[in-house]
Amino acid sequence: RLDQGTMEVKLEVINLNSLFNFVLNRFDMILESDAKNENTITKNYNILREFTKEDVWVEVDPDKFTQVLDNIMNNAVKYSPGGGTITARLIKTKTRAILSISDQGLGIPRKDLDNIFNRFFRVDKSRSRAQGGTGLGLAISKEVVEKFNGRIWVDSVENKGSTFYISLAYVDEEPEDDWDAE
Ligand SMILES: Nc1ncnc2c1ncn2[C@@H]1O[C@H](COP(=O)(O)OP(=O)(O)OP(=O)(O)O)[C@@H](O)[C@H]1O
Ligand SMILES: [Mg+2]
Asked: Ligand 1 atom closest to Cα of 127?
């Protein structure tokens, strides 16, 4: 659909603090239920939130943006076989909101950093295949983020971990609530 230009984007002004937190809460729940299930091999994760106290309003397609964050969070878990801390940050600069997700996993070799957002690219084909990856998640994430005039990039050190960043222009005010007009 992206290729054919038929992907429908439904832009809405949303509170990024809430949307991001919603995604992270779901991962917290998955990790908790894994920990209780004797049949799964539990990895030792914890998710840390470092959010600005200010509200951040951005214009995105909430469903599509949720999928982007899901993929980055899934990757953070999938490519951190030893577990560790996943740090989720949300900050405001003068003009843009920047969110980031850092893991303490396998990291990405320097030579591969430029390819990571290309379709079907996987760092270690055998390793990723064992994890069930197709190498499409980040390519789609990039196209989606760019539809909102956002940027996505990565910073990583092999065997130390990776940080994925997304920046978006924020809008100044909470949107007027059409339903609440008095
Ligand atoms: N947090 C991370 N740590 C280390 N390597 C990563 C991380 N995120 C992505 N990668 C590398 O980048 C590759 C591309 O990621 P991408 O999400 O596009 O595909 P995938 O996870 O393999 O498959 P899927 O299509 O299911 O998302 C991965 O195969 C992996 O090698
Ligand atoms: Mg992925």
From this structure: 31
Ligand 1 atom with minimal separation from the 138 CA: 18
Cα of 127 vs centre of ligand 2, distance in Å, is 13
3-state secondary structure the chain: CCCCCCCCCCCEEEEHHHHHHHHHHHHHHHHHHHHHCCCCCCCCEEEEEEECCCCCEEEECHHHHHHHHHHHHHHHHHCCCCCEEEEEEEEECCCEEEEEEECCCCCCCHHHHHHCCCCCCCCCHHHHHHCCCCCCHHHHHHHHHHHCCCEEEEEEECCCEEEEEEEEEEECCCCCCHHHCC
Q: Is 128 in the pocket of ligand 1 (CB under 6 A)?
A: yes
Q: Is 84 in the pocket of ligand 1 (CB under 6 A)?
A: no
pLDDT, greater one: 181 or 17: 17
Instruction: For the chain, give every domain's residue range.
Output: 12-173
Q: What is the pLDDT of residues 47-69, one digit of tens each?
A: 999 999 999 999 999 999 999 99
Cβ(116) to ligand 1 under 6 A?
yes
Class of domain 12-173: alpha beta
| Residue 136 Cβ contacting ligand 1 at under 6 Å | yes
Return the residue whose CA atom lies nearest to atom 21 of ligand 1: 133
